[in-house]
Amino acid sequence: MSGSLRDKIVLITGSSSGIGRVAALKFAAAGAIPVLAARSVDKLLDVAAEIRERYSIDAPVFELDVRSNQQVDQVVSEVFGRFGHIDILVNNAGYGLFRDTVEMSNEEIEDMMAVNYFGLVRMTKAVLPSMLERHSGHIINLASIASFFATPTHGAYAATKFAVQGFSEGLRFELHGTGVHLSTVNPGPVDTPFFDRADRSTLPKMTNFLRAEQVADAVLRATRERKPVYILPRIGRVGLALRHLFPGVYHRALARKK
Fold first, then answer.
1. Number of helical (H) and strand (E) elements in the chain, helices listed first
2. Which family does it belong to (predicted)?
3. Which residues pair with 61 in a beta bridge?
4. Active site residue: 95, 157, 230, 250, which one?
5. Which domains does the chain have, with CATH numbers?
């Protein structure tokens, strides 16, 4: 997977908007064949039309709710039937709700976990056996910088991304030597329709939002470099280091004053 992306089959969940949409366009620009999957078929058709117009590539469209075992198995089976294999799986589908835990219903928290974590697990388990059989493939999981630490009102969302990070790390060790690679891409806040649901006001006022293009570039870079973990922006690594080096200062900075 470290060479050309031309004619590679790339299945991207959540590709109707935001990071998934931009990643699909960038994969097409590199000569790959994006397979578009999301719940909003109308938006997927718009993305497919844009890809066809700009790159003369037919990107197939599949309606997919990653919460459904049946739909996941059906879509993956249809992709295998059409192309015979999947070279790259980009697990991008997800959303966030930012509120105090006590104000969130159990159903809201469970649904976030069903999409962000279990949806990713379903997709991975559906695609992985074929990759192992071919001794080739790359799984790219869109996690978050929130998969390394949680802040007030972000705990339930961060838990889903902590789960993604743990699942990815364990699976990466299992895949060692198989020819199948796994990377996580961990961005800070990204200016996408994600914030149509997630509350921007819960973020620090000076937050610098990433662009979807920056994250999509990291996704494509991962297919060539095969590094296990990508953190965006790079200064995020500094924040993580400070959190571990000065836990007392970190706690006092985030703890609410009663």
1. 9, 7
2. Belongs to the short-chain dehydrogenases/reductases (SDR) family.
3. 36
4. 157
5. 9-254 (3.40.50.720)
